[in-house]
Amino acid sequence: MKPAAYALAPTAGERLLRNAVVVYIWLLVAVPLVALVRVGLADGLQSLTHALSSPVARAALWLTLWTSTLVALLNAVLGTASAWVLVRYKLPGRALVSALIDLPLAIPTLVAGMMIAVLYGPLTLVGHALELWGMPIMFARPGIVLALLFVTLPFVIRAVEPVLMEIDPAEEEAARILGAGPLRTFQTVFLPAIGPAALSAAIRSLGRALGEFGSIVIVAGNIPLRTLTAPVYIFGEIESGTPRAAAAVCVLLLVLALALHGLASFIERRIGARHA
Amino acid sequence: MLERASGAVAARAASSERASSAEAQPTHLRWAHLQPIGRAALVGLVCLYLGAILIGPLAALGVELAHVGIPAALHALAQPDAISALKMSIELTAISVVVNTVVGTLGALAIVRQRFFGRAVVNALADLPLAISPVMIGLAFVLLLGRDGWLSPLIDRIGLKVVFSFPGLVIATLFVALPYTLREVVYVLEEIGTNEEEAAATLGASAWQIFWRVTLPNIRFGLGYGVLMALARSLGEFGAVLVLGGSISGQTQTATTFIHDAIEERQTAGAYGMAVVLALSSVLLLLGLEWAKRHKKVR
Fold this sequence. Notes:
The complex is a heterodimer of chains A (276) and B (299).
Chain A: H1 12-40, H2 45-52, H3 55-88, H4 94-100, H5 103-106, H6 109-120, H7 125-132, H8 141-151, H9 153-166, H10 169-177, H11 182-211, H12 214-220, H13 230-239, H14 243-271
Helix pairs in contact in A: 1-14, 2-14, 3-8, 3-9, 3-11, 3-13, 6-8, 6-12, 8-12, 9-11, 10-11, 11-14, 13-14
Chain B: H1 2-18, H2 27-30, H3 35-68, H4 70-77, H5 80-113, H6 119-127, H7 134-145, H8 152-158, H9 166-192, H10 195-202, H11 207-236, H12 239-245, H13 255-264, H14 268-297
């Protein structure tokens, strides 16, 4: 990045405005998070072990971790496949679908949860059929995965699409002419380009899924030890008047979320990408 | 381009058929006849995925509204609770949009164009709300501003009630919508560089003139995109406003927490009516976002 030019050296007024904004961002973001960590770690690491001694908390954390990881993996594969189809195949209705991909970013997650609940609830054809097959969605773990897939849908697709569009067709042609099959072409031409983008977006979707609350509240039924996720557990602790116990679990999730955020940002900086 | 490549493959497959010996064929030609099947399978998989995750649920909400009945939903929305919840959401969104437009523009200008101590930290802080669960945000502010909170002596002194009241809702909404305008403007500013602004400065324009005549016209579509995202996020925020506001009917209930309470009380008509209002506004926002995105690219 080029240093600010001499001609544009900030005036006193600009410096004042800048300081005001900097203070605003510090007060709004840093101070509350410091308060959270301070309370969460009030007794040092002992608060963490104490919080994790509750089987309900442990089960909630574990459920959140594995569903989010599963969703991130599914996103990496199916999101890349979707971007591939949307960019390379001129199918009818492509423009409409492509516009709808961003919908999960614009729609309240609570409403997203309701949509999943309506389609897969026991009262609809789909939900009823799945229940007969022995796979209830609502108030069960598959519902959690579906809701998380909905809210994280745009991440990988939107990250892979621009990379796919930028790949020089000559590279692909060269690979084919040199005798590479479709799989080999994908491995040697496409994967090195879209791999890092898909990876960082999958990490972002993992972070997003770890913190998801609105859609899960509707879909999961929040049964302790079975369908209670960590964010809903934290909410329950706040509701029942023990926010300090919730803070320790929060600190664990916060550290994880910040680590994932940092990792994804690092990859994005290296490949010069932006995130959704 | 794809057609051309597959055409070439097909032509080579045809010519190698004439060349009789199958063993002499390179691998990709031996499997060439499977390619259309592979492509159809991929398209089928993606259609199934997008149908199951995105399009199916969206359509289902529309069908369900028809099932509940539009008159019943409208009637439920005309109740004073629903109206005050909707009004509350609109007020919060308006405040958040105005504040974040100003903060996003000024913050991005400072981060991209000025060099100061702690610049990278502020840049990172402004991105954090994207990474943090809304419930956590709510809890952090409760622990900071609530009863026995870190700043509660100060807040009691002023006589301000933050948690379970309007200021709490404002803070929660401002927090979650912070990154959108700022990031979008940062991207645009980094892309356009400072040449035009330097030219204006050397021609004698004041900082004020440079901003209104050069910088703002250049960033307007990026800023517009960010503002629409901030609007969507503010309108749809649920976890943080639930924890900080407490969803007190007629006081701190927003459109989203109204839906939550309506579902708990089995007021289906109200829940679906409000959900469809929010879904329709997000579809409108989506159209606006597409429009801004198209203009953002062409420059």
